[in-house]
Amino acid sequence: MKGLVAGEDLAKPDALGNTANPDKVANTDNLSYSEALRTLFIGEDSGMHVNNFVWAYNIDTKRLSRILSTPSGAEATGSQAVDNLNGFSYIMSNFQHPGDEMILTEPLKTEVESLIKQNFDNKKAGSVGYLSGLPSVSQMVEWKDTDNASDLLRDAAEKKGAKVTWNEADRSVTITKGSNTLIVKIGESTAILNGQTVKSPRAAVIENERAVFPSGILNSFLNK
After folding, report:
1. CA 190, chain centre distance (Å)
2. CA-to-CA distance for 77 and 204, rounded, in angstroms?
3. What is the pLDDT of residue 32?
């Protein structure tokens, strides 16, 4: 077992009152994981950030992205990743007790507290919501335009007489056909073609335990 993501305490509060680096997690409280997106969603209940956040951490690219914030003093909770509902993905989240653990500096604290009381029933209300409009991985695979269409790597390659091998250590797929070699790493939007780096319209992903990659580069390689 090992830690994937860590925060950073500040030696002294910043101008807003944050006691932990707002560009990193702080006192995480709830988690949700999307296998399709290979992404961990992290909600905070810190008392160390002026606004608690929800983060997305891709376990392949190791990239941490802040995707939403709560009102000052509120706890981010109720995280849930819905991978595919009628062709779309949803990131569920809600917050509770806005204004309860405010660490804002004055006079901003008094101003924000007044607004929270007005908008959230004198600090007694919260909100439930979600991020929407995200195409599911299965929907992305079905896109058929020339530049972005994706193929299941092994199926497409073996039909053309190529050999496919999987390297679990670095999560890469190597496709060999004759004297030509294409190496694709899951989570990366580049590939290695005969030793040269080539750009891809989007990253390779795992879909239903199978590697999926934009078909433009793959078809060009297989038709050599």
Report:
1. 18
2. 31
3. 94
Work out the number of other CB atoms within 10 angstroms of the CB of residue 62: 10
**Per-residue burial over 210-224, b = 16 or more CB atoms within 10 Å of its CB, e = otherwise:** ebbbbbbbbeebbee
Q: Give me the residue label for tokens 């949803």.
A: 90
Token pair recorded at residue 91: 């990131």
Tens of pLDDT, residue by residue over 144-201, are: 333 444 456 677 778 888 888 888 888 888 999 989 999 988 888 888 989 999 887 7
Type and span of the H or E element at 106? none
Three-class secondary structure of residue 218 per DSSP:
helix
Number of Cβ atoms within 10 Å of the Cβ of 198? 13
Residue written as token pair 């060009």: 220
**Per the structure block, which two tokens stand in for 4?**
């994937």
What are the start-end ranges of the E strands in the chain? 28-34, 39-44, 53-58, 64-69, 75-85, 88-96, 127-135, 150-152, 163-167, 172-177, 180-185, 190-193, 196-199, 205-207, 210-214
């951490």: which residue's tokens? 57
Question: Distance between CA 180 and CA 17 in Å, rounded?
Answer: 57
Q: What is the pLDDT of residues 86-116, one digit of tens each?
A: 778 889 999 999 999 899 999 999 999 999 9
